[in-house]
Specification:
Layout: H1 2-32, H2 39-42, H3 54-70, E1 77-82, E2 88-90, E3 93-94, E4 98-102, E5 107-111, E6 120-121, E7 125-126, E8 136-138, E9 149-165, E10 171-183, E11 196-199, E12 201-210, E13 222-230, E14 240-242, H4 244-254, E15 260-264, H5 267-278, H6 292-298, E16 302-304, H7 306-319
Parallel strand pairs: 1-15, 8-16, 9-13, 11-14
Antiparallel strand pairs: 1-4, 2-3, 4-5, 6-7, 9-10, 9-15, 10-11, 12-13
Signal peptide: 1-30
Protein name: L,D-transpeptidase catalytic domain
Organism: Mesorhizobium shonense
């Protein structure tokens, strides 16, 4: 009888231990989640253009609150990007998938942003992306792919790129700012990859224009000259590119005042979605998310880890050396 009582006592103690463990587990999980999303911000959650998906908001907000609590970020605003959404909606309309969130002033804004174009190493590996939807992601050097995960905006560098001809047939100076991102985990090599944010604009068709009075002129009196191209509707080299107008808003917000940027998806998301897509199983029933229209277009996403892709790229560069750089020609008189 006594042994039976002891056994019951032990079983009761075990049940109490399990209950305590479950309670602690639930509390630990709750501690990892961000505080409840304010109602005004929750109103922007959805699948439509200009809205933000729940998982993207939760992770972006959790990252921001974590960095604020650590003291590494004091900026009242933070950023998020959903690279599973389409970048080009057709007819000259760009998809809004980059989010500027300022909770103190209850401000939410969605703008367009480019994704990494990737590369097609013909006969070796094709990890290129179309203009509309991104299929391939990765963190390899020289891959020109977007890598999802956690970033903090860092230093901003503004550089002179050259001159261009305006509609008024006058020459204007083109300078472009670049915001370096620092990552962690899979994005830890962001600085090494020179990954950051900048306006989606550049000069093409470069030549050297005689302009000896310019403060940018070389010793022979020449300056770079080209055609200004806005590629906001295109792809990037793995960086986050904004339209020139949006860049004028974003860059001053973070100059000398870092904040967080969370880019979705991470490799773990891509692996989970790829498994479900291969089996043609529902994502929502598994608690997974990918933009439906892009998933239908790409079939299944793929993440290319640097340990796999960097040797392939290095061998390709060795087998296909670039031709010697040609001197920039002198401009013909316009």
């Amino acid at each position: 009888m006594r042994s039976k009582s002891v056994a019951l006592g032990i079983a009761f103690l075990c049940l109490i231990a399990v209950a305590i463990a479950l309670t602690m587990s639930a509390q630990s999980f709750a501690a990892l989640r961000p505080s409840n999303t304010p109602a005004w911000l929750q109103a922007h959650v959805g699948e439509g253009d200009g809205q933000i998906s729940q998982v993207v908001l939760e992770r972006a907000r959790a990252l921001y609150l974590k960095k604020v609590s650590e003291g590494s970020v004091r900026n009242p605003c933070y950023f998020a990007m959903d690279a599973t959404r389409p970048g080009d909606l057709g007819n000259g309309v760009l998809g809004r998938r980059y989010y500027i969130i300022c909770e103190a002033e209850q401000s939410f804004r969605a703008v367009s942003a480019g994704h990494g174009g990737g590369r097609n190493l013909k006969g070796v590996a094709d990890f290129s992306n179309g203009r509309r939807c991104a299929k391939n992601f990765g963190n390899a050097m020289d891959s020109e792919l977007t890598a999802g995960g956690a970033y903090i905006t860092a230093d901003t560098k503004t550089s002179f790129k050259g001159y261009y001809r305006t509609a008024a047939k006058q020459d204007a100076v083109f300078v472009r700012s670049f915001v370096q991102f620092d990552g962690e985990g899979e994005t830890a090599n962001a600085r090494q990859r020179v990954i950051g944010g900048h306006p989606a604009a550049l000069l093409r068709g470069m030549c050297l224009l005689k302009k000896p009075r310019s403060s940018y002129a070389d010793r022979d009196g020449y300056v770079p000259f080209g055609k200004l191209v806005n590629y906001a509707g295109g792809r990037s080299n793995g960086c986050t590119s904004w339209s020139p107008a949006d860049a004028e808003l974003i860059i001053p917000m973070i100059k000398d005042n870092p904040t967080t940027l969370y880019i979705y998806p991470e490799s773990r998301d891509i692996a989970a979605i790829a498994r479900k897509a291969a089996l043609r199983q529902s994502l929502s029933s598994a608690g997974l998310y990918w933009n439906a229209s892009c998933l239908k277009e790409i079939g299944a996403p793929k993440f290319w880890p640097k340990k796999t892709l960097e040797p392939i790229i290095a061998q390709y560069k060795k087998d296909h050396p670039l031709p010697p750089a040609q001197p920039v020609p002198i401009c013909k008189e316009p």
